[in-house]
Specification:
The chain has 130 residues and is an alpha+beta fold. It has two helices and six strands; from the N terminus they run βαβββββα. Strands 1, 2, 3, 4, 5 and 6 form a six-stranded antiparallel beta sheet that branches. The longest helix is centred in the N-terminal third of the chain and has 18 residues, at 23-40. It is elongated, with a radius of gyration of 15 Å.
């Protein structure tokens, strides 16, 4: 996790009968890490709180996650566009990478039901020091 300034940890849960973590749980791990990261960089504070919507989630499964212990999820911004931004993730169990993920979040006006320009405050927080 050396290349990630922000790391979130989750307890391993929802192990299948085959002895590994269910693939759907990885989306939950990524979601929890995303919420913690956005809170960490103060994007979930103030008047623009929750003015975003998840537009894309990609997960590449690298190795099965095993029962017990924790999953570490590194999160970092990878792009800030005109109306959206991307976060990338690395999920590790111990020394082993178990998955990689990417999300695209869109600045969104829920009242009007349309995307909106990415606020400068968000761009600054995503591209500044973590």
């Amino acid at each position: 996790m050396e290349s990630f300034d922000f790391v979130h940890r989750e307890r391993v849960r929802d192990v299948e009968a085959m002895g590994h973590v269910n693939n759907a749980v990885f989306a939950t791990y990524v979601e929890q890490a995303r919420i913690e990261y956005l809170s960490h960089v103060a994007l979930l504070d103030g008047p623009l709180y929750m003015a975003m919507i998840l537009a894309r989630l990609e997960i590449d499964f690298v190795a099965p996650a095993q029962p017990g212990g924790e999953i570490e999820i590194g999160v970092r911004p990878s792009r800030a566009g005109s109306k959206s931004f991307e976060l990338e993730y690395e999920l590790r169990q111990g020394e082993r990478e178990v998955a990689r993920a990417r999300t695209v979040l869109v600045a969104y006006d829920y009242e009007r039901g349309v995307s909106m320009p990415l606020p400068d405050q968000w761009r600054d927080r995503l591209t500044g020091p973590a």
